[in-house]
Amino acid sequence: MKKFVDVIVPLPIANQYTYSLPAEMEEMVQIGCRVVVPFGRKKFYTAIVTNVHYAAPEGYETKDISEVLDSSPVLLPRQFEFWQWLAEYYLCTLGDVYKAAIPSGMKLESETLVEYNPDFEASAPLPEREQKILDLLSADTEQCVTQLEKVSGLKHILPVIKSLLDKEAIFVKEELKRNYKPRTEARVKLANAGEVDEARLQKIFDELARAPKQLAVLMKYVELSGWVAQGSALREVTKKDLLEKSGSSATVFNGLVEKGIFELYHQEIGRLDKSHLDTGDINPLNAAQQQAYEGILQSFKEKNVCLLHGVTSSGKTEVYIHLIQEALKAGKQVLYLLPEIALTTQITERLKRVFGRRLGIYHSKFPDAERVEIWQKQLGEESYDVILGVRSSIFLPFRNLGLVIVDEEHENTYKQQDPAPRYHARSSAIVLASMFKAKVLLGTATPSVETYFNATSGKYGLVELTERYKEIQLPRIELVDIKELAHQKRMQGPFSPTLVKQIKEALERKEQVILFQNRRGFAPMIECHTCGWVPKCKNCDVSLTYHKGLNQLTCHYCGYTYQVPRSCPACGGTELMHRGFGTERIEDDIKLIFSEAKVARMDLDTTRTRTAYEKIIADFEQGKTDILIGTQMVSKGLDFDHVSVVGILNADTMLNFPDFRSYERAFQLMAQVAGRAGRKNKQGLVILQTKSPDLPVIHQVMNNDYEQLYYDQLAERQMFRYPPYYRLIYVYLKHRKEDVLDLAADAMGAQLRSGLGDRVLGPDKPPVARIQTLFIKKIIVKVEQNASMAKVREYLLAVQRAMLEDERFRSLLVYYDVDPQ
């Protein structure tokens, strides 16, 4: 009997495909393993086996699989069940989920670009096939797999590539150059350390008597290495630590190396942090935290999901740590989700102190090699007990998940926008936990309306934490009407006199300031003073953002960049003005007003890499930066002790969005940014600048009145049929030709209406109606809570299939955003 396998390929294709198994591979294949399959004309992909059987498919000839890559599964049965739920609920394909879930290094394909690693040194002779590929790559250092297959004349090349990848002799091009070298750290020791005794050390001290700076560095080394306590082993001292703690410069240090007193050596510290940390004890909880902790445990007895609604800096993280400890004692794994990578850097330190090597960290700024390592580790015997990560960590393989914590659950970064699957990590985490019969804790100071609705209606448990840690007061919020000030010409650019005065006073008191502006770049747009012409993107319907540092115009939708015009192409005028303020311009303006202050900026442009994030945050924590300017990244639960003033430069940019969530979102953002002000023993101050001081949402922020906002929003949403009373599905249609798109959208709208009635709105143009040369139309489907979502999804897909069978709409793109944020 011939054996067959069903597989998922990493392509947006609805079906699974069946391949036949060559006899020699029959015993090697298991469900959940990766295999190499030929697909289409001369292309190879890494597919995942979902079933092994004897039933030949009808209607097409099966091809043989080419290779088996794993001896044990990389996809566990429960994970596959979760993938199926995601594909069904979010109306996408299993291939979409596979693509999103698994790190690039684990899904090689014929288009994968591989690159030679010049630092590779083989520890033993390589097999002939591998050596051949390496020789080819050393001559031409970057080639795609198909090209290598052709030139080398080798068949079945992907396993060879995989083996070289595992040895780090080559890299997948999607990884950045910086993954090459093993991570090392410069450390310091005394030259000929074995021969140095107290007498010899005294002699060195005497020699350095005339070089006091060098002497100070040496004394500091003796102290840090624990040299005096002779009996014990010396502690390792890093060069960075020694320079920081002795307050000395590299020049002074180099002098000691030249004199042969110090010796520098490099220690490899590995990708996955394997250091043995001295794990400390958990901090005891204060009375309010203890009460919340017990309340959560109580709620978990009856409900699977609980909301912890705690004001900013009420010490929610400490409560989480105690809950994690409790889950680990029961032998369970914990997933701790955060919305923003910026946050992981701060919380990592706190969790590492408690959980040490049991903690793994997973996010997209990590090089791919590191993500593959973590994935493999989770499949092995010694998996991490606690995973701290951003939304993509819900895809990791878990065996016995017991608790999921979703911190800052209201954040819209938990929702994946593009490409599919457009999943919401909070909702998905709740489903994932239910598959393991695990508990979920949602924590936030400003819950999303849907979550709060579920908590107050009894679907979720609800625990409140109403006082800030160590009785710190909530910040005082001062409202500034910038419309009035602009009339009186009293604004200094985007800064009101009040804000400038408060920043000045804070700097004099050696305190720090955060300024929040929700737009990156220098100016949101350039405009011709004479005729009003505004440069727009040729691929998208948006004006271009001016980035001064790069001196270019950039489209924030497709990433295309343009030269800055010298004169207006419409009227020839040379007076091109900058309209609006981005973070880059705020930074320039602040430096002009406070030339002495040290200023840093945190937005998408300055945090392209993981280390960039860490440096900006570390510098601010250590007081090396006085003023931090940022987009919403700065609002995300970061804890700084010396921030006394927070400026929200223009609340209106958040309020004027054509979106039913804009007030809820503006409240959350402002309350979170405000929460960064005032920490230990001092009330902070927030300056809230707005042109519409009379809006109710502004006063709700000032009084920290979440309840009032919630009831206002509920009334509005019930009236207009929005969540939490209705579920939304946005249907997007895209096409290169506007007339074809209009026809298709009208036809699909009519078809949907015939089955779903007045639940269907549109088609309409979205605010940005063309992106990357494709025109866009949007249809909204509103489904009441008690209707069957499964039937609605079935109907949508049936209509889509009928549409795509029409000759005219062959190249039409249709996709869905379920529960849009």
Query: What's the gyration radius in Å?
Result: 30 Å
Largest β sheet strand count, sense and barrel closure: 7 strands, parallel
Strand content: 15-25%
Q: How many strand elements?
A: 34
Computed structural class: alpha/beta
Low-confidence stretches: 174-182
H/I helix tally: 25
What would you call the shape? globular
Helical proportion, percent range:
25-40%
Q: Mean pLDDT score, rounded?
A: 89
Spatial arrangement of strands, main beta sheet: 14-15-13-16-17-12-18
User: What distance lies between the first and last C-alpha atoms, to the nearest angstrom?
Assistant: 51 Å
Structure description:
- By secondary structure, this protein is α/β, with parallel strands linked by helices.
- It is built from 25 helices and 34 strands.
- α1 crosses α14, α21 runs parallel beside α22 and α24 runs antiparallel to α25.
- The chain starts with a strand and ends with a strand.
